[in-house]
Amino acid sequence: MAFELKSVVPWGRSLEEYIKIFKLTDSDLNSSIISFGDGPASFNSEMTKFDKKVVSLDPIYQFTKAQLKQRIDETKETVIKQTRANQENFVWKNIKNVDELEQIRMSAMANFIDDFEIGKEQQRYIYHQLPTPTKYEALEFDLGLSSHFLILYSQLGLDFHIQSISEMLRICKEIRIFPILNLNAVKSEILEDIINHFNSDFIVTLESSDYEFQKNGNETLVIKQKKIN
């Protein structure tokens, strides 16, 4: 099935949020990072300004800058309206209120839009749709990230997640996935099966995050290679 932009609700997060979400240390930030399902986040553009190495993968990168900007403009009011109507489902700690949320998201997505074309030329934004295998070599990256995609969209099915995480682990020495909730803001029904699947061959842990926006959404799934030659 063709991936259609009209099915996408772009919602980008910032470098500051990624640092809190994944507890990224200075050592992490200086490593080689690949981020899956990055969408219109400003993580890549901000990291690039600091001369850090990040590759972002997402199916929306097949579209043009103008198409992505139009889709952001089309959907932002709907998202903000829904958030205002469901404020009790969120923790207003890292982000103080809906107005600040809108400012943070729109600023992040503006940074992404400004960086998108040159980032594509520099092979920092790569069109890719999980669980399709990537073009990268085994363990080419130190760290793989997935923010608000894997596990969250549990309706994609366990097989989709197993295949996607397996590809991440093929090319990464360590991966971190946040949050471990589903779209109903409860612990994802596929989480236990994912942990059980990878537990024997990898080091699998649930670790606290410095970020919580969805209520009880403050844990990250971390999977590491047991031995790296």
Q: Note poorly predicted spans.
A: none
Total helix count? 7
Count of domains: 1
What percentage of the residues does DSSP assign to strands (E)?
Answer: 15-25%
Protein name: SAM-dependent methyltransferase
What structural keywords apply?
38% helix; globular; 7 strands; alpha/beta; Rossmann fold; single chain; 229 residues
Secondary structure layout:
Layout: H1 15-22, H2 26-29, E1 33-36, H3 43-49, E2 54-58, H4 65-85, H5 98-121, E3 125-127, E4 141-147, H6 158-171, E5 172-178, H7 191-198, E6 202-208, E7 219-225
Parallel strand pairs: 1-2, 1-4, 2-3, 4-5
Antiparallel strand pairs: 5-7, 6-7
Helix pairs in contact: 3-5, 4-5
Protein name: SAM-dependent methyltransferase
Question: Explain this structure to me?
Answer:
The chain has 229 residues and is an alpha/beta fold. It has a single domain (5-225), classed as 3-Layer(aba) Sandwich (Rossmann fold), CATH 3.40.50.150. The protein contains seven helices and seven strands, in the order ααβαβααββαβαββ. The longest helix has 24 residues, at 98-121. The chain is globular. The chain starts with 14 loop residues before the first helix and ends with a strand. The mean pLDDT is 93.
Précis, in short:
The chain is α/β, with parallel strands linked by helices. The chain has 7 helices and 7 strands. Helix content is 38%, strand content 17%.
